[in-house]
Amino acid sequence: MRAGVIAVQGDVSEHADAVRRAAASHGIDAEVVEIREAGLVPDCDVILLPGGESTTISRLLREEGIDEELVRHVREGEPVLATCAGLIVASRDAKDDRVDTLDLLDVTVDRNAFGRQADSFEAGLDVDGLTEPFPAVFIRAPVIDEVGGDVDVLAEWDGDPVAVKQGPVVGTSFHPELTDDARIHDLTFFPAKAVAPDADVEVAE
């Protein structure tokens, strides 16, 4: 399996490690490609769109021509995992004209709704498709405040959706890559079976 991590900004190596662990749990070897320019997405089976700064990510995707390739990837039914700022970019509306959203998920988001870096926290989330709570890490996280009819809500926190799925795309407000638990990556790319957690949550500094 070839996994492409959008590497214009964000937790690239953490996502690469997580998708390798998820693939290995199914006896699959995952080759990870860091994507910083157009031409690589079409050769990938799965795509990861990490966090970072959503205005910068969306601008670089547009400038490099990666945005159109991502849209085509999803239209062809290939999976994408978009986390935190990646979720904002993947949304229909970020409520911010500086963000050129990709409209991969029919949701609107409120950027940084969970507060500043100092307001980061961890929470055990009940996620549809997982048998045990997932140790979610929220860092300057967006809130999903409107969900379209074709979108499935996978998890909520304080009544707000924080994980959603539409077709082959999964979006999370939190950072699943900042744990040793690869079940969100597994749920996205191998939805028939989610692996068990293998360690406690660890927050990257």
Concise account of the structure shown:
The chain has helices at residues 12-24, 54-64, 66-75, 85-90, 183-189, and strands spanning 2-6, 31-35, 46-49, 80-83, 91-93, 105-110, 121-125, 134-138, 143-147, 152-157, 160-166, 169-172. By secondary structure, it is α/β, with parallel strands linked by helices.
Q: Can you lay out the helices and strands and say which pair or pack?
A:
Layout: E1 2-6, H1 12-24, E2 31-35, E3 46-49, H2 54-64, H3 66-75, E4 80-83, H4 85-90, E5 91-93, E6 105-110, E7 121-125, E8 134-138, E9 143-147, E10 152-157, E11 160-166, E12 169-172, H5 183-189
Parallel strand pairs: 1-2, 1-3, 3-4, 4-12, 5-6
Antiparallel strand pairs: 6-9, 7-8, 10-11, 11-12
Helix pairs in contact: 1-5
The 3D shape can be described as globular
Give the terminus-to-terminus CA distance: 30 Å
- Tell me the strand percentage band: 25-35%
Rg of Cα set: 15 Å
Number of strands: 12
What is the overall number of helices?
A: 5
The CATH topology turns out to be Rossmann fold
**Integer average pLDDT:** 89
Strands across the major sheet, in which order?
2-1-3-4-12-11-10
